[in-house]
Write a structure and sequence with these properties.
Blueprint: E1 2-6, H1 9-31, E2 34-38, H2 45-52, E3 62-66, E4 68-70, H3 81-93, E5 97-99, H4 108-119, E6 126-129, E7 152-156, H5 159-167, E8 180-184, H6 186-190, E9 194-199, H7 205-213, E10 231-236
Parallel strand pairs: 1-10, 2-3, 2-6, 3-5, 6-9, 9-10
Antiparallel strand pairs: 4-8, 7-8
Amino acid sequence: MNIEVLKTKAECGAAAADRGAAILKEVIAAKGRASFIVATGASQFDFMESLTQTDGIAWHSTVMYHLDEYIGITEDHPASFRRYLKERLVDLVQPGTVHFIRGETADPATECRRMNAIISKDKIDVAFVGIGENGHLAFNDPPADFETEQPFIIVELDKACRQQQYGEGWFASLEDVPATAISMSIKQIMKSDTIICTVPDERKARAVKQCFDGEVSPMHPASILREHPDSFVYLDVDSASLLSRTG
C-alpha cells in the first residue's frame, strides 16, 4: 500500500484523480475498455470533480459499478447514491455502461443476486473508494465480513455510520438514516487490479490511524487495503495528522 499526504482536500482529490485517470487511459488503450468501481460521500467531492474534468478519458469505453446503496430509498431521494453519481459523474461524462444498485427494491436478496451475476462476468480494473469515520470500506461496517465470496451483500449500518451520514447533511435526522444497505463486499473490492482510496478531512484522522497504523482487522475494515498489491491512499494533512507511517 502506498500513502501520499497532500496539503489540502483539493490537492488530495486532484492527486487521486490524476492517478485514476492515467489508469483508465492506459487500460482503455490496452484493452479497448475499462471497468471501474466508484464510491460516494462528501469525502469524494474534490476527487470526483477533478476526475470528470480530466481530458482524454474515453468514457464511452468504460463500465461503471455502483459501490453501495441504502435499502428503501428511491433514486430521487437527496441521499441516494444513484442520484449523487448521476449528478457528479454519470450525467457529466456518460460512461458507456452503468450498473446501479436498485435500493428501493422490495427484494434486496434478489437485487444482490442480479448484481452478483453481472459483476462476476467482469474484471475490475480500478476501484475508487473512501473510508468512513468508523473505518468502513463501502458499507462494510465493523466487524466487517472479510470472508464472504458474494460480490454484493445486505449489511446493517451501525450507529457511527448512520451518525456520519446525518452529520454530512444527507438526512434531516439520525432516525431518517436507513438501517440497512446493499454493499459491495470486501473480497469483491479487493479483486480490483488497482484501488485508489481518497480520505481527506480531520474527522477521518482517527479511522486513518486505526486502519493504517494498527493491525489488519475486521474491526477496522479499510485496514485490509494494506494487503492489496496495488493500492494507493491519498490523505490531506488533517486526515494524516495522527498517522505515524506514511508508506
